[in-house]
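To: structure desk
From: M.T.
Subject: fold request, one chain
Message: Could you run this one when you get a chance? Sequence is below, nothing fancy, just the single chain.
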Amino acid sequence: MVIVSACLAGVKCKYNGKSNFNSEAEKLVKSGKAVPVCPEQMGGCPTPRLKAEILNGTGADVLDGKCIVVKENGENATQEFIKGAEEVLKIALLTGAKRAVLKSGSPSCGCGSIYDGSFSGNKIKGNGVTSELLIRNGIEVVSEERLNI
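Reply: Done. Structure tokens follow.
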């Protein structure tokens, strides 16, 4: 079983109410090989919602209590992002998932690079909160850019 960002499978759960549709992700879900998840929704964030980014760090830093996730308006969204990551991990463990294909850049799902917290479009190396939690629990995480590998 594979965990996949729901937005990649066509679910309109992205912050702006749209999806990041990827036909390969949709095929995985339709074939029963993948389970779609949206950590942000599972953590209690509405759709649509304000953009959020990790301020002064990465998902690892959020999990370690060294920084926070903030919305565009400055509100702290850390607890929602941690709760969503924990819920995704529960699903991964329940389904026996060994791999996750998650949306690049996201403060939840980003794998390898995320936005830098300035809301300016700049990226830094690092993982989102959910990606980092899955990795820490032995689940391979890749971005949708590596979906066919």
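Reply (cont.): Strands lie at 2-5, 34-37, 52-55, 68-71, 99-102, 113-115, 123-125, 140-143. Let me know if you need anything else for the meeting.
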